[in-house]
Write a structure and sequence with these properties.
Layout (H helix, E strand, L loop, with lengths): L8 H27 L5 H21 L10
């Protein structure tokens, strides 16, 4: 049993919300950073990767249930 399996559904949801919120904070900084014409592409890439990583992790911690249209 992994540590993530020991979390309650509420814990998993809270953790996913924290990860998504952090990804959104970084995304906001990313937008401000890229408005400067002197920004570095490597930093922009690192920020983009971190945003994606946090969002993927949030989805793994608390995957959203896909609604079935046929139901």
């Amino acid at each position: 049993m992994s540590n993530i399996d020991a979390l309650t559904p509420s814990d998993r949801k809270q953790l996913a919300e924290i990860l998504k919120r952090r990804a959104n904070e970084i995304a906001s900084h990313h937008l401000e950073y890229t408005r400067d014409n002197k920004h570095h592409g490597s930093v922009e890439l690192a920020l983009s990767r971190e945003i994606d990583r946090l969002r993927r992790l949030a989805d793994r911690v608390d995957p959203e249930v896909e609604e079935d249209d046929d139901a």
